Amino acid sequence: MLRHEFRPGRAVAGLAMLALAGGYAADAAGAWEVPWTFFFPLLFGGLWLAATVTWVAYMVRRRREARKASAENIGAPASSSGSHAIR
User: What transmembrane ranges does the database entry give (predicted)?
Assistant: First the structure.
């Protein structure tokens, strides 16, 4: 049983930040020589990817809930006005 809702956007953002921290640590240790401007695209690319994953997960969740609500609904909603009203 899940204790909380899974949020894939936060997971992607966390992985991007871990990669960023690993790159900074490797550069600081002298194991990897890259210019400091290299890290900006990594930061913003990771945040953009996390936002995209969050949006896709929201759309999937919304569609799933609509499909579930549609399956549970047996009849059409009653309308009190318009051309389709039952008289």
Answer: 38-60
